[in-house]
Amino acid sequence: MGLLTNGNAETVDVQKAINTPDYCRTDSLYDPLFFQAPSGTPGGVRPGLAVAAESNADATTWILHLRSGVTWHNGKPLTADDVVYTIRSWGSPVSYFQPLASSIIDFKNVRKLGPLTVEVPLLRGVAAFPSITSWYNGYVIQDGTTNFAKPIGTGPFMFKSFTPGTSSFFTANPNYWQGRPYLDALVVNSSFTDDPSRLNAILSGDIDIAPGVPQALAKANVGRMVIGNAAGPGFIAVCMRINEAPFTDLRVRRAFKLLLDRETFVTEVFDGYATPGNDCPGATLQYWAADIKAEYDPGKARALLRAAGHESLTLELLTSPVVPGMVESGTLYAEQAKAVGVTASIRQLPPSVYYSSSYPAYATGQRPFSVNYWNVMPPSLAGFYLEALNGHAPFNETAWGLAPGQDTLFYDAMAETDPAKAAEKWHAVQELQAAQGGYIIVANVNYVDAYSYRVRGIETTSAGDNNNFTYRTGWLA
Amino acid sequence: MLVVTVLIYIAVQVLPGNVAQIVLGRTATPQRVAALQASLHLNRPLPVRYLDWLAGMLTGHFGDSTAALAQGMTVPVWHAIAGPLGNSLILGGITLLAFIPICLVLGTLAALHAGRAADHVISLSALSASALPEFLVGTLLIVIFFTELNLLPPIASVNPGQTPLSDPRILILPVLTLLCISTAFGTRLLRASIVEVLGEDYVAMARLNGVRESRVIVRYALRNALGPSIQVIAQMIQYLVGGIIITESVFNYPGIGTALVQAVLVRDPQEVSVVATILAAFYIVVNILADLAVSLAVPRLRTRL
C-alpha cells in the first residue's frame, strides 16, 4: 500500500494519529468500540469491541456492553478496565480526540459496572454517541498504555516494525475475533512525496493500494488500474464567518450562496467525482437533508447585494493547496462572483500552515472568508456539528452558534433518541443552516482510491477510503 | 562554513509555520502550540538554540528529529538519514562513473570535429538536454521507458533492509536523468580545452613529426586536458548535490534528497538543518579537494612564474 509521506511526524500512537498514513496503521492494529459503517446503516456504525450501547431517554448516560472473548496481541483478554482507561485517555491533553470528546464526555464519572460493562455519563444528550466513539483517535488501547513504540492492539494485524516516513510491516493476527485476515502481511509504504509516483508504483506493481487519489489523476488512470469511487460526507466549502462584516448581513450571505453554479464545480474542479453541495454538511450520513437543494440565481444575488448596499464588493478569499480542488474551488468561485459585482482576490497560503494557529489563524476572525475541506468526520450529523457547527466547536470555521439561541435546535436534535422525531428535528437544523449558515458547500467530494487489478475484497465506500482503511477483508488474486 | 551554518539555521527558522503548528494541524489551539513548543525547547532565544545545535554538530551529535519528538517519539536524526545518505552516495557514485567516460568520448569527438556536423549535433543536443529541469527529464524518461516501452520501473522503491543495488534496474532512470542534464557542461568544457590544446604548437609539431593521430590525442591532448577534467568532475559532484534532491523526488528514490523534502514538509528544524549542513560541507570539501588535485596534476600551477 502506498501513501503520501508525513515524514518523521508519522505515528502508530492512536491518540496522535492525524492523517491517512497514521489512520491506515492504527485502524489495522486497533479496534474501535463501534466501526464506521457505510451509508444506510442506522446510527452510522456497526458493533466493534462493544456489542451494544444503550442510553437513558435523553441520551445523557450510556451503558456499553463489551464483546467477550477478545484478546490483545499479547494474549490478555479485553476487559472493562481497558475501555475505561481508553475513554479517560480521550480527555488527556496529548490526545487529538480531546477537543471533541471533552465537549460531551464527563470523564471523571466514567466507570466500570461489570467485567464487560462500562457506564459513560455525558455532559449533554448525544443520541449518536456510538458514532463519536468510532473516531480514529478513540480506538481502544490496553489499560495502562503509555508507550506506543511496540503497539499492542486487538486489531486484525499485529505490529512488527515501523519507520516513520518510510514504511511499516504488520502481520495477520491469527486470533482476530472477526476471523484471521486473508492477507499474511500488510506493508504500508509512506515514503511517497507526490501522487503521480504513487500511481506509477501501482502500475509497476510496487504497491497494490493507493488510498485517497486526486480526482484528475484518477480520471487519467481509468482503464489502467481499478479506481474506487464512492460518495461520502467529505466536502469543500467557501466559508463565511457570519460574525464578520460583510457577512453579518444575512442578505450578503444569501447572495453569496446564490451566485455560484455548483454543477460547474462538480465537472470542472472535481472531474465528476463529486455531487453539488446544498450547504448542509454530512452528505450520505443518517438524517442528512438530501431534499434541500441549493438555488443558482445570480440575478437575485445581485438584487440582494444592492439591497444590502454592496453593489460592488471587494474582499480577499484565503485558500491553500492542502487537498486537490481547494485552490481551484476558490478560483472558480471568484470567477463566478465577478458576475454579481463581487471582486474576490485569491490569497494562497502554504499548505503546511493553512490549518495552524499562525497568522491568519485557522477558525478565527482573522479569516472572514476562506476555503476549507473536510474528508473525515465522526459518521453522524452530531459528529460533524460537534466538531465545527456550534458555539463551542473546536473547528468553528463559520462562527456558527456564537449568537444567542443559534444552537438551540441543534442541541435538541442531538439529544433526540426517537428516530422519527430526530429526523424532523435534524431537518429543521439543516434548513436553518442552509438558509443562514456560513458554509457555501461547492461540492460534496467522493472518496476516490486506486487499486491494482489483483486486489480483491477491499472497496471504497461511503465510510471512507478503503472502507475506512479496512484491510482484513482483502486478498490478492 | 560557519557562515553557511548560520544561514542554514536562520533559513530553517524563518520558514512559515513551525513544527508544533504543523504536527498539531487542525487540532492546534494557541495553548497547545505553546505547550508543545515549550516541551520541544522551541521557545528559547534563537542564538541559544543555534549555539546548542552547532556544538552538537561539531561533536557529531545530530540530535533527535523534532517532528518525531512533537509526536512523542524519539528518532535520532542520524538514524533517520544514514540509510538515505548511503543510497544517495550509490546513486551519485554510479552517475559519476558513467559521466566521466561519456564526457571524455563526446568531448573528444566534438573537439576533433570542431565546427563540423558531428560537433554541432553533440553540442546542441547536450545543450538542449541540459536546459530542461530534472523533473521534466525524469517524467519524459518515465513516459518513454515505462508507460510506452514498459522496460524499466518508474519508481525506485527499496524494501527495508535492502540497498538500491539489490535491484539495480531501479537506478537506471534516475542515473539517466542526472546524466542528461549534466553531460552538456562536461562535454563543452572538455571540448573547449581539447580544442585549445590541439591548436598548440607542440601538437602541430608532433603531427608534423608523423606521430599517429590516436597517440596525439591520448598523449598530448587528453593529458593536458586533465586539469580541466578534474574541474569538470568537481563541478559534476557539486551539481549532483543539488540535482539529486529533485531527481530523487521524481522517482521516489529513498535518498537524502527525499529525506530532506520530507523534513521540510513537516518543518523538522533539526533534520533540515543537519541535512543541509552535511550537503554544504560536502560541497566545500569537494571544492578544496578539486583545487588540490588540479595543482598536483598540473605542475605549472605549482611553480611561481
Structure description:
The complex is a heterodimer of chains A (477) and B (305). Chain A is α+β, with helices and mostly antiparallel strands and 477 residues long. Chain A has three domains: 2-11 and 155-231 and 447-476, 3-Layer(aba) Sandwich (D-Maltodextrin-Binding Protein, domain 2), CATH 3.40.190; 31-138, Dipeptide-binding Protein, Domain 1 (Dipeptide-binding Protein, domain 1, Alpha-Beta Complex); 235-445, Dipeptide-binding Protein, domain 3, CATH 3.10.105. Helices cover 26% and strands 22% of the residues of chain A. Chain A is built from 15 helices and 21 strands. Chain A has a four-stranded mixed β-sheet with strand order 1-10-9-8. In chain A, strands 4-5-7-6 form a four-stranded antiparallel β-sheet, with helices on one face. In chain A, strands 14-18-13-17 form a four-stranded antiparallel β-sheet. Chain A starts with a strand and ends with a strand. With 305 residues, chain B is mostly helical. Chain B folds into two domains: 2-70, no CATH class; 77-304, MetI-like fold. Helix content of chain B is 74%, strand content 0%. The longest helix of chain B is centred in the first third of the chain and has 36 residues, at 77-112. At the A-B interface, β10 and α5 of A face α2, α3, α5, α8 and α12 of B.
Q: Structural class, from helix and strand content of chain A?
A: alpha+beta
In CATH's first tier, which class of the largest domain in chain A applies? Alpha Beta
CATH architecture of the largest domain in chain B: Orthogonal Bundle
User: Class by helix and strand content of chain B?
Assistant: mainly alpha
Oligomerization state of this entry? Answer: heterodimer
CATH topology of the largest domain in chain A, what is it called?
Dipeptide-binding Protein, domain 3
Overall mean pLDDT of chain B: 82
Rounded to an integer, what's the Rg of chain A over CA atoms? 22 Å
- First-residue to last-residue Cα separation of chain A: 16 Å
Percentage of residues assigned to helices of chain A: 25-40%
| SSE sequence of chain B, one letter per element | HHHHHHHHHHHHHH
Overall tally of structural domains of chain A: 3
